[in-house]
Amino acid sequence: MPDFSTNILLSIAVFAGAFVSGLSGFAFSAVAGAILLRVFQPLEAVPLMMACSIGVQATNLWALRRNIRWEGSLLLIVGGLIGVPIAVSLLQTTDTHLLRRGFGIVVALYAAYMLLRPTLVTAGEAVGRHWVALIGFGGGLVGGLTAMPGAIPTIWCDMRGMPKSEQRGLVQPFIAAMQLFAIVLLVGHQDLSSKVFVDLAISLPALFAGSALGVIAFHRVNETVFRKTVLVLLLVSGISLI
User: Fold this and answer.
1) Which residue ranges make up each domain of the chain?
2) Per-residue pLDDT for 177 more than 70?
3) What does the alpha-carbon distance between residue 233 and residue 242 come to, in Å, rounded to a whole number?
4) Which among 169, 181, 167 has a CA at the least distance from the CA of 231?
5) Helix, strand, coil proportions of the chain in percent (round to 5)?
6) Predicted confidence band at 84 (pLDDT cuts at 50, 70, 90)?
7) Reduced to 3 states, what is the DSSP secondary structure of residue 170?
8) Is the pLDDT of residue 174 over 70?
9) What is the DSSP annotation of 83-120?
10) For residue 2, what pLDDT is reported?
11) CA-to-CA separations, 86 to 80, 91, 142, 144, in angstroms, rounded
12) Max avg pLDDT among 59-63, 88-92, 104-108, 213-217
């Protein structure tokens, strides 16, 4: 494929993924990967998506900095940092295909059921710190196996009926930290091609434009539309793992 056409597809993929992630807080790889994994080899596409996703998360964190709930996020992050290395060990010693497929089925069924519910739940009582850390551990463990670190914390927030700003303020730093940790582990295990850095530079305008428009859309949609958007993305992400 000519370089010009490849660069156009790269920009389209990154813009779409960044917009969706800016709106919902996650799912960059699920959207952008649908194109990038067809255009590039996995050894180039995966680190490129991880680097772009970290850029999107950094933009989201800055744009939503007033909503960040650092205490709860730090508890999630501590639990996640314990879960990720365990997932990496499982990937090296165990066939995790069935685990990923089973998790995809659970996420898809949950999202489909919640989309059909006629009413929203209200936020529950405060939970203990150990429970928050446990959710983070589950997110880190599953994220290491499926590249979806935000799935479990997002589902947990949805089950508790958190408002969109509170949910993003809690989960956004966790996803950013897990992705940064993951790319550090990836770099430690393999050498990155110089082409990844060139493609990243080419995609930056689309990345920041998509992120900015996604954050603007997040502020403008109401709670119901935001929740349905998140559930649809969870449904698509779950199906992609089956």
Assistant:
1) 4-241
2) yes
3) 15
4) 167
5) 85, 0, 15
6) confident
7) helix
8) yes
9) HHHHHHHHHHHS--HHHHHHHHHHHHHHHHHHHH-SSP
10) 54
11) 10, 9, 10, 8
12) 213-217
- List b or e across 94-132, with b for residues whose CB sees 16 or more CB atoms inside 10 angstroms: eebeebbeebbeebbebbeebeeeeeeeeeeeeeeeeeb
For the chain, how many residues are written?
A: 242
- The span from the CA of 179 to the CA of 90, in Å, is 18
Measured CA to CA, the distance from residue 107 to residue 30 in angstroms comes to 14
Q: Give the pTM.
A: 0.82
pLDDT band, very low/low/confident/very high, at 121 (cuts 50, 70, 90): low
Q: Two tokens at 234?
A: 């969870």
Local structure of 205: helix, strand or coil:
helix
Residue range 116-125: mean pLDDT, rounded: 61
- DSSP H or E stretch at residue 207: helix 194-220
CB 69 within 8 Å of CB 166: yes
Q: How far is CA 203 from CA 5, 56, 197, 213, in A?
A: 13, 12, 10, 16
Provide the token pair at 89: 């060990």
